[in-house]
Amino acid sequence: MPKLKTSKAIAKRFKVSSSGKFLRHKASKSHLLQKKSSKQRRHLSSTCSVDLKDIKNIAMQLPYL
Q1: What are the annotated disulfide bridges?
Q2: Nearest Cα to 24, choosing from 55, 64, 60, 65?
């Protein structure tokens, strides 16, 4: 049986926590930041966990994480 390939695009965007959850960065933090409040920018910089509906698809593309 051949080796499974890891999707490099997915591997760059998601990390696995020590408890096994997938973590992601929030969107809307790359540009047009001047109109956003500092509170909004601060909350966008934190990580959050992936929704339960998306975990199966991400786990299939990251077989060795």
Answers
A1: none
A2: 55
Across the beta sheet with 14-16, the strand order is: 14-16, 22-25, 47-49
Residue position matching structure tokens 């060795």: 64
Question: Which pLDDT score, from 0 to 100, does residue 65 have?
Answer: 81
pLDDT for res 58: 95
Listed by start position, the domains of the chain span: 8-61
- Average pLDDT rounded to a whole number, residues 30-56: 96
**Residue 34, CA distances (Å) to 30, 42, 43, 44, 50 in order:** 11, 13, 15, 14, 27
List the alpha helices (DSSP H) in 8-64.
Answer: 8-13, 38-44, 52-61
